Amino acid sequence: MTPVERFLLAHLLYEYGGRLYFTTQRESPEETLAGFLAEDFVSVEDRRYLKVKKAFAEALKKLKENWMIELRSFEVALTIVGRMEAEKLTREQYEKLREKFGRT
Question: 3-state class of 82 per DSSP?
Fold first, then answer.
């Protein structure tokens, strides 16, 4: 599991309680959700936004393939295995990583 994948699992757990509802327009659910989650860290106008969105989309696809998340066109939810993996990163560790990520 990559650091981005583990971070996204922890982000979904600690910020959204393990479940998030969203709507898709023209993009795939992974791309839409990746953009939404990227906005938690960088503004759409920030030059890093597209890079973060792409990394998140790739991580979400892999998490879905590995049954860590259930992803539909309107909802993402951690699976039991995904929740166990997310909890390997404590809330304190997650908060430190989130703060560090926000500064870069």
Answer: helix
Reading the block at residue 103, the tokens are: 């500064």
Whether residue 75 contacts residue 20, with contact meaning beta carbons closer than 8 Å, is answered with yes
pTM reported for the whole predicted model: 0.91
62/23 Cα distance (integer angstroms): 21
Model confidence pLDDT, tens digit, residues 20-60 = 998 877 889 999 999 999 999 999 999 999 999 999 999 99
For 12-72, give the DSSP string.
Answer: HHHHHTTEEE---SSS-HHHHHHHHHHTTTS-TTSTTHHHHHHHHHHHHHHHHHTTSEEE-
Among residues 73, 52, 44, 65, the alpha carbon closest in space to that of 7 is found at 52
Lateral strand order in the sheet of 75-78:
19-21, 75-78, 69-71
